[in-house]
Each structure stands twice: as structure tokens, then as C-alpha cells.
Amino acid sequence: MSDATQAKADPVTRTPAIVLEHVSKQYGQGATILDNLSATIPPGEFVSIIGPSGCGKSTLLKLVAGLSPITSGKIVMERLTRVNARRITSFIFQDPTLLPWRTVRANVALGLELEHTNRASRNEIVDAMLALVGLADVAGMYPRELSGGMKMRVSIARALASRPRVLLLDEPFAALDEITRDRMNEELLRLREQHAWTVLFVTHSVAEAVFLSNRILVLAAHPGRLAHDIAVPLPWPRTAETRDSTEFDAVVSRVSRTLREVQGQ
């Protein structure tokens, strides 16, 4: 996203920034999952989180979303409290978690129903979200009738229906084939261009992280801690041609080398 595009974005949409201050997480008397992790995520930035299995990537997203308590430290979301953090974040998981007995339209509307949004407003928002992700023509279909990529787009539409300012994604495209995954990456950036969310994105794919991100946080394990904070100096917008560039290959190589070093520690 260009600086000019960010400048035009609604300032309400572009907040809050996320500040992690010495965040640690331990479950009961067990091992420490995250240890003394600090980072600042400016408004509208897309940050990917990579690292070896067990380093606390998914746990970190849950802490930011307010779905799990912090053992020590602090997470600050600008102009918000931890009490209402859940109201401005949307969480997209690897599994689309669609209700099989509800149509595409009804799945997208679920969160709005739980928020008691009136029918007229709910229908308007659902129509807009289905159009946004290109699924207006399958609104009456059921999850069993959809491809994997279409199911994930329904999940994204459902998340966006709540008008989030912060989008948290936990390996949402990991189960898709490579071509569909690349297309979903491009679709996600197209949507971000319009909404300028602050994004935290967990992935095991270095190429995916490089393609999507302004920055990449590399976590080390045992316990999980921030090992590297890498800027991605590729121009915006990112397109399919970006993946064919020597610049892209160079960044992927550098991040991959860093990840291997972290895993070897």
C-alpha cells in the first residue's frame, strides 16, 4: 500500500496501533510459551509472524484478540482497553469454521445476528461483504457445495462484516493448493487496499510472509521470543509479477536464512 493510499484512509479504520510490552504467557505451572516479547505495530501495517512450531505464534494472536489472559507484560491497543479489544478485532482461522446447515449468506450474517444488528442493516452489510469477496452469486449455497478457496472467502466475509480495525489471521490459507493460495494472498491485499486494517498474519510460508507484509517478526522457540524484526522493502502494490522478481527472491532467501538460523539455536 502506498503512503498516499494510507493517507487517504479513514483514520478511524487505520487505528489502533498495537504495542506489545514485555509480553509473557505461561499456562498454569507449565512451560513458558512466550517470554518478554515486545513490538510496536503502527496503524495500517501488515505484519507476518513466522517461526518454528511451538514458538507461540498462534498464542500471540489469541493474546492480542483478548481470547487468552497475559501472564505478565501488557498489550496496548490505541484508544482501547482490553475489555473492548474483542469488539474491533476479527480472527480468521486455518479452518473456515462455517456452519454446514447455514447458507453462505447466513454464515456471513452470523456475527451480526449475535450483535443484534437489525435486519435491514444486517442485509445491507452482508450484501456488501459478499460482493467484496466475489461471492454474491453463491449466497444461497451451502458450505458442502463450495471449494476450499470459496469457503475461506466466506470466512473472510464473515470476519469483515463486523467492520474490524485489526485483522488477525492464523494460517488461513495453509490447507489450500499453491495456486489457490497465491490467489487468496492477492485477494487479501486487494481488500486491505480498500480498508487499511492493521494486520497480524501467522504463517509457516516464508514466501507468503514476504509477499504480504511490511514487516516480518521471526520468533524463536523454547521459550517463544522475538528473535528478528525484518522490514520487507518491496514496492506496493504487490502483484503476481512481484513473485517473479529478483528482489522478491532476495528477500525470501534472506528471511529463510534467518529462520534456519533461529531453528538451529
Q: How would you portray this structure in words?
A:
The protein is α/β, with parallel strands linked by helices. It has a single domain (3-98, 165-263), classed as P-loop containing nucleotide triphosphate hydrolases (Rossmann fold). Helix content is 38%, strand content 22%. It contains 9 helices and 9 strands. It has helices spanning 3-8, 57-65, 85-88, 104-114, 119-132, 148-160, 178-195, 206-212, 246-263, and strands at residues 18-26, 32-41, 46-50, 72-77, 89-92, 166-170, 198-202, 215-220, 225-231. The chain has a 6-stranded mixed sheet, with helices on both faces. Strands 2-1-4 form a 3-stranded antiparallel sheet, with helices on one face. Helix 7 (178-195) links the parallel strand 6 (166-170) and strand 7 (198-202). The longest helix has 18 residues, at 178-195. The chain is globular. The two termini are 35 Å apart.
